Amino acid sequence: MRKLIGERIIPTLGGDVLSSLSDAAPLPAIAGELAMTTDSFVVSPLFFPGGDIGSLAVNGTVNDLAVSGARPLYLTLSLILEEGLPISVLDRVLQSVAAAAVGGGVQVVAGDTKVVPRGAADGLFINTTGVGQLSKPIVAGPTALGEGDELIVSGPIGRHGMAVLCAREQLALEPPPTSDSAPLATAAEALRERLGPRLRAMRDATRGGVAAVLHEWAEACGLTMSIRDHDVPVSADVRGACELLGLDPLHVANEGTMVVAVEPGSGQAALEVLHALPGTAGATLIGQVTLRQLAPVTIQRTLGSEQPLDEPLGAMLPRIC
Amino acid sequence: MRKLIGERIIPTLGGDVLSSLSDAAPLPAIAGELAMTTDSFVVSPLFFPGGDIGSLAVNGTVNDLAVSGARPLYLTLSLILEEGLPISVLDRVLQSVAAAAVGGGVQVVAGDTKVVPRGAADGLFINTTGVGQLSKPIVAGPTALGEGDELIVSGPIGRHGMAVLCAREQLALEPPPTSDSAPLATAAEALRERLGPRLRAMRDATRGGVAAVLHEWAEACGLTMSIRDHDVPVSADVRGACELLGLDPLHVANEGTMVVAVEPGSGQAALEVLHALPGTAGATLIGQVTLRQLAPVTIQRTLGSEQPLDEPLGAMLPRIC
């Protein structure tokens, strides 16, 4: 174990703090309030178009901090390896972790590695836990949503879920959908700086997709989230794969795309901020918050009237992250 | 998933922060430097005499912070569940997590739950990541060890490893060895307060046991750790089980027992502190730091001369934590 850590993990993830190999990493003082989040990643397969479990594990935790209004600072990395996992696979994943940490502006400061016998875990599981610095003004969150607030998605939806599903089931679609796995920290910080308290809520639309976020927000504020199908960005490959499989892209997971709510009249300003950044150039205004109607989330289909948008149920796509 | 979290996890682990179910937990400012550590737990079986995976996951992370000279504050809890795990097992583990968090003085502030299909994980894996506040004076650590420093263990050794091994192999020893799984935060803080800079290093003797800690320390400072077999506390049940299985208790894992180094002449003061606390009443002075001899770690056996004490090699006892 000491050899594995010394020869494989430290040289790739480096950094003075991690290299000290003490029981706990000493970190400088952080001014003001903190945010902390944890996520375990069990995605299958480990590699998929647009990403892998390593970059996913970093981006997922960076994004949970970012959408909470925190600047991501430190990450811990814990690996559960199945006996027999090729070292070359571990190396690729660690390189991906290192690159994603640079991209997300975080430092990997502590780690742990466990090996379990063949059959006791499926290849490789990763836990990342992150600490960030909460910035003022603190984003109010979905309980503060009000009538007329404008709803935005930061880019084309459903890419991560479809990329993993197509890779797992070896559906030979051409071109294959690619994951949107990417850090949202820069976009979240730019929105906070430009909009201040006019920014009401942000959430990365992971498991359950955009529909799950809208349902959670509707429950939190007691209002209805009303969106227009026509304005929701979906790439041609994702739309094709979803139609083939009978899935709604609104229910499919994203890993670098967020839903944003801003106060009435601020949607255009938010779009300007997002369109100026490479990762969110495809952001669109998809609807608004209204007084509670018959359903917590409604969708105006291109042809036809407004319909309820169901909450995603069950594990439609297990092991997507 | 929302039902599982809402009905099982939140009611047991409660707390305002966790209950908010946001992407990241907002935490108050922490004065001064921090410490951060992570650990994944894959112990098999999940329940063993003296503990279970839940209390172990809390104590292990609390102890990594404590021996680093930090006051444990916040913990995240991430669960990977195998499909089919009985809810009653999850409930017992969560109750154990909750009780251990109280015992260790930490608050569970964020969590994550993943379910993987039957066969993809062995029952239940837990990751805990902890943040604590580093207290002044910061413990210097093993690179600061000097000739004549005194070495202490905080209680009878080898209990955790033997408890798990006997439970796993269903060795019907009477009485069965019980794990020492317990928080060391109070003992570590009491030592820091009483000894100040005279306290050189602390480390909980987990995987690889006391021998592994002594080898790491010898490597860090370039000196020899010289201990006396006769003074190392071993309970009768652990000694019996180790003899039966041909194991050296110095190589067996602990989960609530630490090795402590203090400057020359301070051993008695450290023992007074430890003997006054219930969890460390069995602490003893086991040896001292000497100029580098032939071996990095030596042991004076009861009968015979001083011998090298080998470093634990390989996975003698896999899945012990």
Q: How is this fold's topology laid out?
A:
2 copies of one chain form a homodimer.
Chain A: H1 2-13, H2 16-19, E1 25-27, E2 34-41, E3 47-48, E4 51-52, H3 53-67, E5 70-82, H4 87-104, E6 107-116, E7 124-134, E8 150-153, H5 159-168, H6 185-195, E9 199-204, H7 209-221, E10 224-228, H8 236-245, E11 258-262, H9 267-275, E12 284-290, E13 297-300, E14 306-308
Parallel strand pairs in A: 5-6, 10-13
Antiparallel strand pairs in A: 2-7, 3-4, 5-7, 8-11, 8-12, 9-11, 10-12, 13-14
Characterise the protein shown here.
Two copies of one chain form a homodimer. Chain A is 32% helix and 26% strand. Chain A is α+β, with helices and mostly antiparallel strands and 321 residues long. Chain A has two domains: 2-134, PurM-like, N-terminal domain (60s Ribosomal Protein L30, Chain: A, 2-Layer Sandwich), CATH 3.30.1330.10; 142-308, PurM-like C-terminal domain (Phosphoribosyl-aminoimidazole Synthetase, Chain A, domain 2), CATH 3.90.650. Chain A has a seven-stranded mixed β-sheet. In chain A, strands 2-7-5-6 form a four-stranded mixed β-sheet. In chain A, strand 3 (47-48) and strand 4 form a beta hairpin. The longest helix of chain A has 18 residues, at 87-104. Chain A is globular, with a radius of gyration of 20 Å. Chains A and B meet through strand 1, strand 2, helix 3, strand 5 and strand 6 of A and strand 1, strand 2, helix 3, strand 5 and strand 6 of B.
